[in-house]
Amino acid sequence: MNQCALCGKRKMLGGFAENEHFFCSKKCSEGYKIAQKGFCKKCTSETTDESIGGGNSFNGIGTGLGFGFRKSKCPECNSVIRRKWFYFGFPIVPLGKFRVIQVLSRSGFGEQTRIFLSRKLKVQ
Ligand SMILES: [Zn+2]
Ligand SMILES: [Zn+2]
Q: What is the pLDDT of residue 57?
């Protein structure tokens, strides 16, 4: 059985291999490249190694990301600044700001997978 190098999904049928890695879908192979590339030098220098933490799943209570600040989009690595919030159904407590690169966003068949890279901004 093959396991997707990005999302970890196991597949009996379908999917494809690329550069010695197996991917369940084209989306995942593209996401893998985005993740490999990561942040550009400028964005790396403006941030710390601290990531947003937590898993990919989010059920409305706990910490999650708000919408991206559109103007903050980096032309080089496509990261955007997003604020981490503590949610209780809706965002109530603002936490730190992070640069975020979305690697994979997929929903369907009752599952939702979100994978992203994040680095905390030095200047909040
Ligand atoms: Zn996958
Ligand atoms: Zn950048």
A: 47
